[in-house]
Every structure is written in C-alpha cells, then in structure tokens.
Amino acid sequence: MEITRIMIIGAGAMGAGIAQVAAQAGYRVILNDVAEAFVQKGMAAISGTLDKQVHKEKISSDDRKIILDRIIPSTKLEDGKDADFVLEVIFEDFEAKKSIFETLDTLCKPQAIFASNTSSIPITRLAATTKRPEQFIGMHFFNPAPVMKLVEIIRGIKTSEETIAITEQIAARMDKTSVRVKDVPGFLVNRINNAMRNEAKNCLLEGVATIEDIDTALKLGLRLPMGPFELEDFVGLDVALNVSKTLYDGYKDVKWRPNRTMEQLAISGDLGRKTGKGWYDYTSGEKKPRTDIEF
Ligand SMILES: NC(=O)c1ccc[n+]([C@@H]2O[C@H](COP(=O)([O-])OP(=O)(O)OC[C@H]3O[C@@H](n4cnc5c(N)ncnc54)[C@H](O)[C@@H]3O)[C@@H](O)[C@H]2O)c1
User: Fold this and answer.
1) 239 lines ligand 1 (CB under 6 A)
2) N or C end of the chain: smaller count of CB under 10 Å?
3) Which atom of ligand 1 is nearest to the CA of 97?
4) CATH number, domain at 48?
C-alpha cells in the first residue's frame, strides 16, 4: 500500500514537530487539533523552525513554502477520511485517545493504518478500541521530533507484519532510524533510562555520592549529554514521576517503585527547571546545589 496522506491528530509540541518532519519527507499532511487556535499555534511553531533552517541555509525559501503548503490545517476528524496513515499525538490520556480512535474507525477508509505516539499506554490496549488491531501500531518519536533520529516502532499483539513494514518505510523516508520494540511498559528507551535514573537515586539515598558528582560521573564516564538529575529537572519531575509510576504499575515489581524523594519534591511543587527548583536550584538563573534541603 502506498502512503501519501498522513493525518496528525494533536498539534502540540510533538504533533507539530512530527507534522513538519512528515511534510519535509514529501507527505501530504493533515494537521488536526480541537480548535483553530491550537492548529495555528502548531503551524506557527513549524514556520518558526523552518525559518531557522532557511537562515542556516539548510533549505531555500522556496522549499520552506513548499513544505508549509503540504500541511493542511484541520479541526474536524472527518478531514481524515482519505488519509492512508493516521498518527495520534494528543495528551497522554487513555479515554481521550480511545474516543478519537473509535471515531476514526468509523470515518477512515478500511485500509488506513492507525498509529499512536503514546509514551506509556500499551499499544495492544489502544488497538483493541478499534476494529483494525492488525493495522494499529506504536510510532514513538522523541523530543524534539525534527532533531531526534530515533523512532521506536511498537508492535501490539495483533499488529501485522505489513503494518510494521509500512511504518518502518515511513520512518526511513522521514530520515529517522527505527527500532522494533515489543509492547512492554515504558517500551525500550524510557524503560532503560528510568532504570538508570532509579539506580542514580538509590546511590544518592545510600550516600554513595552527591547529586552533582553522580551527574558529573555519568556525563564524563558514559558520555551522556546530561546527568540523570539534570535530565529529570529538564523534563519535569511530574513527567518523570508519571513514567516511573507507569513502569511500577506495569511490572508490579519493587525494582520500579518511584523514588520517595522524587515523589516528595513533585508533590511539593518542585518540578525542576520550569518551577525554579527540583534536584537543583535555578532561582538565581544558574544551576546550583540546593541548600534548603538535605538529600
Ligand atoms: N513531550 C515529549 O517529550 C513526548 C515525547 C514522546 C512522546 N510523547 C507523547 O506524545 C503525545 C503528545 O505529547 P505532547 O508533549 O505533544 O503534548 P502537548 O500537550 O504539547 O500537545 C497535545 C495536543 O493535543 C491536542 N488535543 C487534545 N485533545 C485533542 C483531540 N481530542 N483532538 C485533537 N487534538 C487534541 C491539544 O490541544 C494539544 O495541542 C503524548 O501521548 C505524549 O506521551 C511526548
């Protein structure tokens, strides 16, 4: 089956980035959100990123126009009736995603493939909300989508080999590298990354080293761009806690139990960079060790 029209549902941080990548790969893109203002926000984000690419002479202004012209703004799911591939990128909520897939199932052509960019909801569970579980797949991009090369391709229990092959072709045409992953909690990257961050927190708890030294050691010893505590402050402790809870719920193994200090920081509103304090203190405008808490 040839894929020419891709519908992206959700024009937020990830949806806009993926829409841009799809349009740059030559696909016709329908970018959908619940209201015109949200679609326009996504379009403005894409436009801004393309402006930077023109400025850096990576693309010409003609290319910029061609790419933007390939994206059709939409606020109605009916606009996806001719789509070959529909990628859902709305906020992380099962009931909201379920409602979209149930509607799409009645609107879209029978051969259309459905995909979700969910970070944590089982693909098999989402696939079961449709009458086409063979044509349902996880396509998990990383943030920011135009920059990050990896796509995890997650096969639900009933996903067909043809659906996987088509999704791999789409990822390759988007200039991404894809890996096949089974439908397990956290998939691959978030699972391994979370295990490492949990172990870093265990080391902190045991007094093996300080937060700053653990971050320094992992950056210099493993060539990580950010240490585990720096990374959690960057993504937000609320987001990190949710990932941790998903893994704990999914595996029912004490190894995945969310770290208590992380939970306490998140409950008290210290969510990292976005609130000024997390594992570090950013209130002076620079990253500093916290002096108000004894870890
Ligand atoms: N942000 C990340 O780092 C990241 C990375 C990988 C995967 N994800 C996953 O991608 C998905 C989206 O995350 P995000 O960070 O882009 O969220 P976001 O909050 O930035 O954007 C979500 C968008 O979906 C729209 N939306 C909500 N309900 C809708 C509906 N019924 N129909 C159409 N649009 C609707 C919202 O208006 C919003 O524009 C989530 O499932 C998340 O787990 C996020």
Assistant:
1) no
2) N
3) 31
4) 3.40.50.720
- Contacts with 121 (C-beta within 8 Å, 6 or more apart), sequence order: 92, 94, 97
227-274 pLDDT tens trace? 999 999 999 999 899 989 989 999 999 999 999 999 999 999 999 999
Among 117, 120, 140, 198, which one carries the catalytic annotation? Answer: 140
Residue among 73, 88, 103, 71 nearest 8 (CA): 88
Tally of CB atoms within 10 A around 120:
18
- Structural domain of 216: 189-280
32, 117, 152, 244: the catalytic one is 152
Among 158, 182, 206, identify where a domain stops: 182
DSSP, res 158 = T
Residue pair 199/190 in contact by the 8 Å Cβ criterion: no
Contacts of 265 (CB under 8 A, 6+ apart): 237, 271, 278, 279
Residue 287 lies in a domain: no
Residue at token pair 């086409």: 132
Predicted confidence (pLDDT) per residue in 86-111, tens digit: 999 999 899 999 999 999 999 999 99
Answer yes or no: do 178 and 193 share one domain: no
Q: How far apart are CA 249 and CA 252, in angstroms?
A: 5
Domains: count for the chain = 2
- CA-nearest residue, atom 3 of ligand 1: 143
Final residue in a domain of this structure, among 127, 149, 182: 182
pLDDT at position 1 is 85
